[in-house]
Amino acid sequence: MRLHTLLPLALLALTVPRGASAQTTSGTDAAMVGFETQSSEGPERHFMFNAGGGVSFPISDAGDRFKTGGGFQLGAGFQFKRNLGVMAEYYFSGHDIQADVLTGTGIDGNHYMQYGSVNAVWNVMPRSPIGFYLIAGPGLYYRRVELTEVAGVAAVPYCDPWLYYCTTSVVPVTEILGSRSSTDFGLSGGVGVTLKVYGDLRLYVEGRYHYIFGPSFDLPEGGSRKADGQYIPVNFGIRY
Fold it and tell me: What digits encode the pLDDT tens for the residues 143-169?
């Protein structure tokens, strides 16, 4: 009688731990799968950065005076939600000056633009391998023009707001040569396309439109004109 009583109890004792162990293992595996999925998607809130470079296209009046140039951008910010963040950014570009800006003369020189901006970034489809984002915000723009040579004449009537020099009379070339600059407020907005590399690390291509509210110059024929600037940089690089 004792043997018949003890044998089922022994079998039950051997069986119960195995079931509990299997259940614990299954729960652990499920938790690990969930952790890996969350890790691959990245955290909801985190610091952001971007680094890239590309070409910069002056357009409108700026495009009539400056050639297509190249530049680079650096940014850092914080993602408050998976689809929304704020990015502070620095950008630099360099351009050659069009040789025929002044009629009858040849000009040689350079144009540089730098800006610092604060932008809102809205990520569309943030969990998709291929996504895109919208970016826009205000900035402070510094533009500098360096004239190194004015060929063909000793004196010229020179008035061009986008070269930051305008006079009502003929001036010697030596007075025109040199560097002039302006610091102004501006706005920008654009769109970027991203390709997921690992987690939230992505490759990106971005195009953005910049409008700069430039200084005003009095014209020799009367009236005034503002040296507003318009640029479209297209950059590619990495962002997180």
Answer: 999 988 887 776 777 788 898 888 777
Give the three-class secondary structure for 20: helix
Instruction: Give the global pTM.
Output: 0.78
Give the integer Cα–Cα distance in Å for 132 and 115.
24
* 2 three-class SS: helix
Question: What is the number of residues in the chain?
Answer: 240
Q: What's the rounded Cα separation, in Å, for the pair 167 and 178?
A: 15
> Which residues fall within 8 angstroms of residue 148, CB to CB, at 6 or more apart?
108, 109, 110, 177
Residue with tokens 């489809």: 125
What is the pLDDT averaged over residues 4-9?
Answer: 46
Q: Distance between CA atoms of 43 and 102, rounded to whole angstroms?
A: 56
Instruction: Give dist(CA 40, CA 34) in Å, integer.
Output: 10
d(CA 82, CA 95): 37
Q: Is residue 18 within a helix (H) or strand (E), and if so which, with residue range?
A: helix 2-41
Query: What is the full DSSP assignment across 195-209?
Result: EEEETTEEEEEEEEE
H or E element in which residue 132 lies = strand 130-151
CA distance 21 to 226: 78
- List the structure tokens of 53: 């470079």
Q: Which two tokens stand for residue 141?
A: 């723009």
Q: Which residues pair with 49 in a beta bridge?
A: 76
Contacts of 127 by beta carbon, 8 Å cutoff, 6+ apart: 41, 82
Dig out the tokens for 34 from the structure: 């969930």
Judged on CB neighbours under 10 Å (0-12, 13-18, 19+), 31 is: exposed
